[in-house]
Amino acid sequence: MKILTLVRQVPDAEARVKISGGQVDLEGATLVMDGMDEYGVEEALRLREGGAAVEEIVALATGPKRVEDALRTALAMGVDRAIHVETDQALDPIALSRVVAQVAQAEGVSLILVGGQEADWDSQALGAATAERLGWPQLTWTNELALEGDTLTGRHDVDDGNESFRVPLPAVVTTQQGLNEPRYPTLPNIMKAKKKELRKDTLDAYGAAPTVRVVGSDIQTRARLNKMIDGKDPQAAAAELLDLLRNEAKVIA
Amino acid sequence: MAPFLSRRDLQFQLYEVLGTAALPQRPRFAEHSREVYDDVLNLAYSVAERYFANHLREADTHEPHVEGGKVKLPPQVADAMRAFRDAGFFSAHHDEELGGLQLPWVVTQAVQAHFQAANISTSGYPFLTIGNANLLREFASAEQQAKYLPPLLEGRWFGTMALSEPHAGSGLADITTTATPKGDGTYSLTGTKMWISGGEHELSENIIHLVLARIAGAPAGVKGISLFLVPRYRVGPDGKPGESNHVVLAGLNHKMGYRGTTNTLLNFGEGGETVGELVGEPGQGLAQMFHMMNEARIGVGMGAVMLGYAGYLASLEYARERRQGRLPGNKDPHSPPVPIIAHPDVRRMLLRQKSFVEGGLALGLYASSLVDDLHTGPEEGRKDTGLLLDLLTPIVKSWPSKYSQEALSDAIQVMGGAGYTRDFPVELYYRDNRLNPIHEGTEGIQALDLLGRKVTQAGGRGLSVLLERLEADLAASEALEGIAEIRTALTTAVSQSTAALRTHLGRAAELGPERFLASAHSALEMLGHTVVGWMWLRQAAAAARQLPQARGDDPDFYRGKLHAARFFALYELPKVGVHAELLASADPTALEMQEAWF
Hints:
The structure holds 2 protein chains of 2 kinds.
Chain A lengths: L1 E5 L2 E3 L6 E3 L2 E3 L5 E3 L1 H15 L6 E8 L4 H10 L3 E6 L6 H15 L3 E5 L10 H9 L3 E5 L1 E5 L2 E8 L2 E8 L2 E5 L11 H9 L2 E5 L31 H15 L5
Parallel strand pairs in A: 1-6, 1-8, 6-7, 7-14, 8-13, 9-13
Antiparallel strand pairs in A: 2-5, 3-4, 10-11, 11-12
Helix pairs in contact in A: 2-5, 3-4
Chain B lengths: L6 H11 L16 H19 L3 H6 L3 E3 L2 E3 L2 H13 L17 H14 L1 H20 L2 H12 L3 E6 L15 E4 L4 E12 L8 E10 L9 E7 L1 E3 L5 E4 L2 E6 L10 E6 L5 E6 L5 H7 L1 H29 L22 H33 L5 H34 L10 H8 L9 H12 L2 H20 L7 H23 L1 H11 L1 H27 L7 H19 L2 H10 L4 H4 L6
Parallel strand pairs in B: 3-6, 4-6
Antiparallel strand pairs in B: 1-2, 4-5, 5-11, 5-12, 6-7, 7-12, 8-9, 10-11
Helix pairs in contact in B: 1-10, 2-4, 2-5, 5-6, 5-9, 5-10, 6-7, 9-10, 9-11, 9-12, 10-11, 10-17, 10-18, 11-12, 11-13, 11-14, 11-17, 13-17, 15-17, 15-18, 15-19, 17-18, 17-19
């Protein structure tokens, strides 16, 4: 079987992002592979290392030239080859799913791993949209996955416990924290990645165009109020703190 | 938490100042590319952030102690070693046939900078091991290399350098550890070694000590010192560590900083025989040890830079967030207090830190690039490169050690009472860095090395190369805008320095060795600031070239470089004149002071 893992490039969680012209300005920001997608890459590698008959693992990304960096990370982690659909257009999840589904069919993959949500566009729709296009079942928010023959078993957490599901391949799996602990590349694998195939496609080939456009972004501003509570009377101070948290900050009921 | 390192500045130094992206044109680096270097640096950042920065405070608070006869360290140190090992950093710069990537030394130093910035004391273990393996690679026999190198390069065994003894630190000529030939080609060692970092721990399967000792009957002084390879556990024919080699931990030193690195007093030959192997020829011990010192001293200088840099970044973040006071002229008590970075004196302290740590980083990486040029640069320039590197090494080691301490003092000052508490890391960086002017040759020894040896080496050729390169950079930057102050101040500093050195060297015979060398500290200060002024010219020129087409955050970045160069020109470079005058007059004030007058 072949596995397709989707790779997105997003700002590092530690990075400061700026807004310019109503858009997030990524110029100069540190960009990394989306953490959720790292779980997907790692899980694909683990399925193969665990003995599943994985013939090839392919990473797919869309976006501008810089997205290559995230694909190189996936290659250095152990993915066999990469496909980069190069475009400066931002694709909404529905448009992106058109690309993912076509690549999946052209490559003959039977498992697609994709982040349950993304740090750059938190629509949580890509996995579902791709499954819908292909008519495949999907396992969502997976934090445990096992493959036996052509049957996939996945588990995800719910509020008061967890649920397990079984689906036949081909299938789409969306990942989340807890699925695994993604590995770092190693220096020798960084060198090997240089020799692996990184294919470039144009967006035109897929007939995908965004229908949703971002027209404005704002960064929440935070200000410190520096409220001091007089602590001479501990009872009164505690009561005042409770009042502030309840009625002013509205963080407790 | 503030970032511990500026990735943008590292990129600037490597690619925009040093032209590291062109190194793959050299045959040794032909498999590399800028992308490879970027990926390697990204990996270093990730591993350093996750496995080294995570226990910075823990390693300081819970310093190594002995429990049940074994040295106990926080468990995160072992995790950090595993991550460093799994990534392949132990062997990165070595030849491919040894499992390395043949990474250039300048990239290797940039990689190591991440670990130094994230946690200097945990980074001590792998860096000692890397230095140890480098030395064996250079001088050990083929048989010794086959036996000891693979586990060191795989990070399964760790290494130390055992030079000092309780009575002989800076004065190594007086060491007394003795090696007696056993008749089978090996030696039996007895004696005590002091200040041995990484001398005992359970992080690795074995520890390889490189020990300076005298072969029984050897002449007094440095000519009688040989180098020995002494494993903690004797290595069996299967290549595996076996029985104890009776290197006994006599005590742990309890230090001001660098607490996570065990620092030990070791007895050799206690309770049984300590067997060692001679490395190289008898009597060559110190020379062999010092062959590696250039690289080790660059490493110390870079460690100092990174501590100063981390402190600068922490105080910068604090200054942007902490609100206090109002600007002069604002009499409205109801207006919000301003972030302290709005106060000019706070900006002065931040700018001073920036000028010291970024100047130091430029110097450390420049020296590292010379190590690459020495081995892989154009054949005809290598001799000159070697002499320039020799000349710069005492400055690369001592200047950042001293001026990062000043920068860290400013970092604490910017943060006020908060900087003085253990709630923030700046007090820890301050304590950690205080070692750097001391170990691997004190500041005083570096000054003596510079004035007594390096300035006159090969007929003063190293100094000529320095001046040629500096003047070439001055000439090439003539037409650039926004760098007038640094060009003017550097030109003055260079003429003051060269005139003072010419005068002092011309009077050497008349002054006699004692008075000649009594001015060594002035020479170090004078040349140190001049060289860092040169590093600021190089950075300012690169920034001035990039600024017109810069986008995003880059215009601010480049203007910051230009402004820091201006600060160094106006506030620091004039100090060169003071030291030049003291040197030119061979000022004898300290020399003439009598012990009884204190």
